[in-house]
Structure formats: structure tokens, C-alpha cells
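From the pipeline queue, job 12 of 40. The input is one protein chain; the requested action is below.

Action: predict structure.
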Amino acid sequence: MTAVQGTVVDIPTEDGIADAYLAHPADGKPHPGVVLYMDAFGLRPQLRSMADRLAEAGYTVLVPNLFYRHGRAPVVDLPEFIDPAARPEIFEEIVPLIRSLTPELAARDADAYLRRLAGSPAVVDGPVALTGYCMGARLALLTAGTYPERVAAAAGFHGGHLATDAPDSWHLVAENITAELYFGHADQDPSLPVEQIERLEEALTAAGVRHTCEVYTGAHHGYTQVDTSAYDRAGDERHWAALLDLLKRTF
């Protein structure tokens, strides 16, 4: 097994300092860069573990605290096992944080995250890949469309509200995307109804984007997160296979 080095790093942005977790093989060599965009529960041990797994596979992975404007991680006090049904008040804290991260702010932050990877001796020169979960899937889509020359591939899993009818919907950047995309949708996810899945597919196809959109039958929103009640082992294993396959094709 590849030894992994993981550290907390600080990233200067236009609005302050974003704390992040950086993981990479401990071999002193540069590796392809990956930005891992967190889900709504934030930067926590589960996401660090996911970053470590990617690092073991040969990548340098950056997991930024997307809610840094509200404090360093953990921004929200979470139990070791997250069950929103047992702790509905969690969302009372989280929803305002999600809404505060507008597409404009997210795009501005993405530039800082990409610059941090580009400037790291642990990252090879050239475009990077993205993977995002829940709200992070929207940011992966947005980043790929905002900085196309800096993104070679992007994946999103159990993303919500990806293709709404709002004038600033996240999918409207599709025409700018040059990266290959992969999305693993949860069919039991009320935040991504069938009409949004179809709207996203139509936009990507019309823009000529290389993409794969798959619906994971029986999976709920959050199926990749082992520390939550939404976790689904089959869906998670399928996600890892799809993600690693995308990265292998890309790099």
C-alpha cells in the first residue's frame, strides 16, 4: 500500500483564508492533482479518508473547507454518525451556509483552489481533475465550465439542484466545458428530480461535452458517505470504480 502524507493547508482567497486538507503519496514525486469538493456536512474525517484513498491511488488531493467564510472546519458540530432524522436541527445550521455560497463566490474560490494545486511541488504541471459530492457536485460542474483550460475531468455524485430553471443554474456553464464529465445520480434523491437529470443531459449533449450520466438505482442522496444514514455500500463501490476509471483515462 502506498504511504500517504496528509496535512492541513491554508489557501489565500479574495475573501480570506480557506483551510483545506492536502493528501498525496509520500514519495516526494509530483502527481496529478484532484480537487475534492465536500458535501454539505463539511470537511471532516470521512472526507479526509476519501482523499487519502485517492492519494493511495497516486493522486495529490485538495479538500477545501467551502464554508471558510464562517470559520475553520468543522464549521458545524457533527456527531460521528450523521442521521438527519435523529438530528433534524443539523440542517438549520447547514442550509444557510449552503445558500451563502453563491455561484459567483464559488467560482471565485475555485480559482484560488486551482492556483494552490498548480503551485504545489506535489502536483504535476497541467490541468487537474475534480470530484464533488452533494453540493460539491454543483461546484465541480461550475469549476469545469468556468476554468475549462485548467480542468481535464470532473465527476459529481448524488448532486442536487444541478439543472434548475433558474437564470443562474449551475448547468448553464455546459457550453464552456472541455473536460470529460461523469455523474452518478441517486434515483431516490428528491433534490434531483427526473426533469433536472434530463435537462442536464440535454445541455451537455447540446454543448458536445464528453460525458456519462448514470442513475444509481435504490441509492439515496449521500450514498457515498459512510458516516451518514444515507450510505449505500453498492453505490459507493460503484462510485469508486467510476471515479478511478475516469482519472485513469484522464491522466
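Job complete. Residues 233-250 form the longest helix (18 residues).
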